[in-house]
């Protein structure tokens, strides 16, 4: 279902019934109780969830979780909350958490809009990562794109002063839209003249590498909250 009448908004994702591998199913059972945070309409206590106080970064739509696991390993001094709706992706990242001994990562399997509104305290995030969100490339579907002005305003509400938003896309017209939307938000400042160099912490995915070899572009945007 694309439109949620209870929220009076258009969803930016389609819930797909994916097939769980044996390893993903085992990871959900074995590591879910420790690393999967249940969605609740109450603010999340980061210190209680992670057992420490640390800068907290939210990733929205982590897919199969390879990039998320990589970044969490590279930044052990920070805590990460990954939000994803699709069960195979959650199982895949839980499997990596278990295999790689990652302790600074918690997952929430739910709609990111509701997680932001109901679980993430205002002015609490050090950063937000959104990598390769669904481009909804047909013009008539552009309204379903996640990066729209009201959503960016909500992200700003949840960011601490000096916190950042890092977006990446391989669709040029979506990159243009992202730059326009973030550039028009008065609470944000661009860290670059236009698009940003790819930050060292974001690894190239296999899909991205393949696209770059074919001459496809990738655009990163990094804005900070004033």
UniProtKB/TrEMBL annotation:
Superkingdom of the source species: Bacteria
Broad class of enzyme this protein falls into: transferase
Record-listed E.C. numbers: 2.1.1.33
Residues binding substrate, per UniProt: 138, 170, 205-208
Positions annotated to bind S-adenosyl-L-methionine: 59, 84, 111, 134
Keywords for the protein's UniProt record, in alphabetical order: Methyltransferase, S-adenosyl-L-methionine, Transferase, tRNA processing
Catalytic reaction list: guanosine(46) in tRNA + S-adenosyl-L-methionine = N(7)-methylguanosine(46) in tRNA + S-adenosyl-L-homocysteine
GO molecular function annotation: tRNA (guanine(46)-N7)-methyltransferase activity
Pathway terms, separated by semicolons: tRNA modification; N(7)-methylguanine-tRNA biosynthesis
HAMAP family documented for this protein: tRNA_methyltr_TrmB
Function: Catalyzes the formation of N(7)-methylguanine at position 46 (m7G46) in tRNA.
Protein name per UniProt: tRNA (guanine-N(7)-)-methyltransferase
Organism annotation: Massilia niabensis
């Amino acid at each position: 279902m694309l439109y949620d009448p209870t929220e009076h908004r258009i969803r930016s994702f389609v819930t797909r019934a994916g097939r769980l591998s044996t390893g993903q199913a085992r990871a959900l059972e074995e590591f879910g109780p420790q690393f999967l945070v249940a969605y609740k309409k109450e603010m999340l206590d980061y210190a209680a969830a992670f057992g420490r106080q640390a800068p907290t970064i939210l990733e929205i739509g982590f897919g199969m979780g390879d990039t998320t696991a990589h970044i969490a390993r590279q930044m052990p001094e920070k805590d990460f909350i990954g939000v994803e709706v699709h069960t195979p992706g959650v199982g895949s990242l839980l499997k990596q958490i278990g295999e790689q001994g990652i302790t600074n990562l918690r997952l929430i399997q739910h709609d990111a809009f509701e997680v932001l509104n109901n679980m993430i305290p205002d002015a609490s995030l050090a950063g937000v990562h959104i990598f390769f969100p669904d481009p909804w490339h047909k013009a008539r579907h552009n309204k379903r794109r996640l990066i729209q002005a009201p959503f960016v305003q909500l992200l700003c509400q949840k960011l601490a002063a000096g916190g950042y938003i890092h977006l990446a896309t391989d669709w040029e017209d979506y990159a243009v839209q992202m730059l326009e939307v973030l550039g028009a938000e008065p609470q944000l400042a661009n860290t670059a003249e236009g698009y940003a160099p790819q930050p060292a912490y974001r690894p190239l995915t296999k899909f991205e590498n393949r696209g770059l070899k074919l001459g496809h572009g990738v655009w990163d945007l990094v804005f900070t909250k004033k």
